[in-house]
Design goal:
The chain has 5 helices and no strands. By secondary structure, the protein is mostly helical. It has 2 domains: 2-78; 83-121. Helix 1 crosses helix 3. The relative contact order is 0.11.
């Protein structure tokens, strides 16, 4: 978990800059940051990094490291629908066999083993 937060902080610094004041950051900066993230990563990783980024700025404010909270209202995780669609598309891409092909293979195995039908479907 430490490494995840460390990597997130490095990413924030790389894309938002090390030398500017936090008070100068605008919602547009975070929109650009999110667009960059979305272009590189899938929805799950994007959502995780968005959550960690918000946590970093919240911690900084609550620890009085910055004088006012950063406006992150437009810096949002992908919707549940987007995550479901991404997960569905990903699983289809990596699927070696379709369900019907697997059923056919399993039926074949049942007939090979001494003609005993091991499966009920």
């Amino acid at each position: 978990m430490y490494k995840d937060y460390f990597d997130t902080c490095e990413y924030i610094l790389k894309h938002l800059g090390k030398h500017g004041a936090v008070s100068d950051l605008t919602s547009r900066d975070f929109e650009n940051l999110r667009a960059t993230m979305a272009a590189q990563w899938g929805s799950t990783r994007l959502g995780n990094v968005v959550t960690r980024t918000k946590s970093v700025f919240k911690y900084a404010y609550e620890s009085e490291l910055i004088d006012r909270p950063v406006n992150l209202t437009q810096f949002k995780k992908p919707s549940k629908k987007t995550e479901r669609l991404h997960r569905s598309n990903q699983s289809k891409e990596h699927r070696a066999f379709e369900p019907a092909e697997i059923h056919l293979l399993l039926r074949s195995v049942g007939t090979i083993i001494g003609g005993i039908n091991l499966f009920l479907w």
